[in-house]
Design a protein that fits this description.
Largest sheet: 7 strands, mixed
Distance between the termini: 78 Å
Bound molecules: NADPH dihydro-nicotinamide-adenine-dinucleotide phosphate
Structural class: alpha/beta
Strand order of the largest sheet: 14-15-16-13-12-18-19
Radius of gyration: 24 Å
Number of helices: 16
Strand content: 15-25%
Helix content: 25-40%
Length: 484
């Protein structure tokens, strides 16, 4: 098999296999063919990975930030040099078109390694002067062993978005990718070793949810960072709470995108396309509830349908193709079941809606109009290429409806009225907001959700606070006064 890795797991700087673990078949979503066979981690493998991370942590944290940063920046360079090869692997793992993976996966992972590599040398505590000459200084310390658990839509990116800030702060990591897309995190682990990371600093083990669960409850683990669905997030957060572990939860969404009638329609349609159909709709922050002001509804839908005719659906390895298969048959069936629910609830199917026959897990980009707030397609995360268009009249009305969801990951507004744009954004109950664009996530900006969409932030300087803690040191320059 062309994409068979040396072994399933990467522990203490080397590939490790244990074929007694449950098999994991890696399927290329464009054909349905098995491209690799791996094995889920046994309790012994889990133990080896955690032991390796635990043993490596103190020495890694004892290096200067400059030295740790140098390793991360070298790893970023290697990832960029190998971008094409890594992108081809990512396309086979996820089914996402090469046109996308070449610019959004290893490159985004490299950005995180470079950014946090650059920050590592400047991570410090502070000096706090007190009265009478006393003072406090704080020491920024690593948390210890961190666990990263990933979803299947951006496997390389997630492995790096979690690994880079963790390592920059002096932590070590055990990362478990989704069993649907297990291949690319192994490459990240290899590259870090090649870049000079000591053995055991970044380990990868494969497995189903039970492996993730056993990592979360292990007493050696100080922090858990999960990218996944809300139901999984609830379980992982609760399990972590029992051990009082730090958490970052990057969970699902049902984000609103509001298009006012003064918006530039071409830009709004572009935003709706990016925010619903990039990666075949398998993006957590997607703006899947598109609220369009009544005056431009017809023009918006007409232009959207025209533009969707230009989607090139097909072999993801063909760089002209810009719309690929869904990651798995299961995910395809979930998305198709929502199409049926939309129809049954009375929404108007204006584009797509069917599976594309032949090999692979393809469906058409799909648009429903006349969607109302109570329909399942407007309330539940589909995680597929299904856009719901809802009408509205006024700003006050649409903002209340946009916020009427348990999720709070992202939100966007398209308007040429600047004061309205900022007013609407101020009212959004969401962690990541957009004005006249959608779904950009540069490493310099905090990314994460409010409400049920998560806890904590990834990327930016804020991520440092989620992978380190402060030790406070009070220094007395005076005699000690005691009451007796
Ligand atoms: P899941 O929640 O099903 O799984 C996420 C990860 O958690 C997988 O590696 C999974 O393993 C693991 N897992 C499952 N159960 C447990 C458990 N009890 N304890 C520990 N780990 C467990 O999500 P998907 O992989 O299906 O990804 C899609 C979801 O991810 C969507 O809801 C999407 O919105 C969200 N997402 C959020 C992002 C964000 O940044 N906010 C970005 C990308 C996706 P296994 O797969 O082997 O079961």
């Amino acid at each position: 098999m062309k994409f068979q890795p040396t072994a399933s797991h990467f522990i203490n700087g080397a590939y490790v296999e244990d074929t007694s673990g449950a098999p994991i078949d890696v399927i290329y979503p464009a054909t349905g063919n098995v491209i690799a066979r791996l094995h889920s981690a046994t309790p012994d493998i889990v133990n080896q990975a955690l032991t390796s991370a635990k043993n490596a942590q103190a020495d890694w944290a004892a290096l200067s930030g400059t030295e740790r940063g140098r390793v991360l920046r070298r790893a970023a360079d290697i990832m960029r040099e190998r971008n094409r090869e890594l992108s081809i692997l990512e396309t086979h793992d996820t089914g996402k078109p090469l046109q996308e993976t070449l610019v959004a996966d290893a490159t985004s992972g490299a950005d995180a390694l470079e950014y946090f590599g650059g920050l590592a040398a400047s991570l410090t505590g502070e000096h706090i002067p007190l009265g009478g000459g006393d003072f406090v200084y704080t020491i920024r310390e690593a948390l210890g062993v961190c666990v990263g658990i990933g979803a299947w839509n951006y496997p390389t990116q997630i492995a790096c978005w979690k690994g880079a800030p963790a390592l920059a702060c002096g932590n070590t990591m055990v990362f478990k990718p989704s069993e649907t897309t297990p291949l690319s995190a192994l490459q990240v682990a290899e590259i870090l070793i090649e870049a000079g990371a000591p053995k055991g600093v970044y380990n990868v083990i494969q497995g189903y949810g039970d492996v993730g669960a056993s990592l979360v409850t292990d007493p050696r683990v100080a922090k858990v960072s999960l990218t996944g669905s809300v139901p999984t997030g609830r379980k992982v957060y609760a399990a972590a709470a029992d051990g009082m572990k730090h958490v970052t939860m990057e969970l699902g969404g049902k984000s609103p995108m509001i298009v006012f009638d003064d918006a530039d329609i071409e830009n709004a349609v572009s935003g709706a396309i990016l925010g619903n159909f990039y990666s075949s709709g398998q993006v957590c922050s997607n703006g899947t509830r598109v609220f369009v002001q009544k005056g431009i509804k017809e023009a918006f839908l007409k232009r959207l349908s025209e533009r969707l005719e230009n989607a090139i659906i097909g072999d993801p390895l063909d760089e002209n193709v810009n719309f690929g298969p869904m990651v798995s048959e299961n995910q395809l069936n979930i998305a198709l079941s929502y199409v049926e629910k939309g129809k049954a609830d009375g929404a108007l199917l204006v584009y797509g809606g069917t599976r594309i026959e032949g090999n692979g897990y393809y469906m058409q980009p799909t648009v429903f109009a006349d969607v109302t707030d109570d329909m399942a397609i407007a309330r539940e995360e589909i995680f597929g290429p299904v856009m719901s268009v809802l009408d509205f009249d006024t700003e006050q009305e649409v903002l209340a409806r946009a916020n009427d969801t348990e999720f709070g990951l992202a939100a966007g507004v398209f308007t040429n009225d600047l004061t309205r744009a900022h007013r609407v954004v101020a009212g959004f109950e969401a962690g990541t907001c957009y004005i006249n664009t959608y779904n950009l996530a540069p490493v310099e900006a905090p990314f994460g959700g409010s409400k049920m969409s998560g806890v904590g932030r990834e990327n930016s300087k804020l991520a440092i606070n989620h992978f380190s803690e402060m030790k406070t040191v009070y220094v007395s320059m005076n005699d000690v006064e005691a009451p007796y």
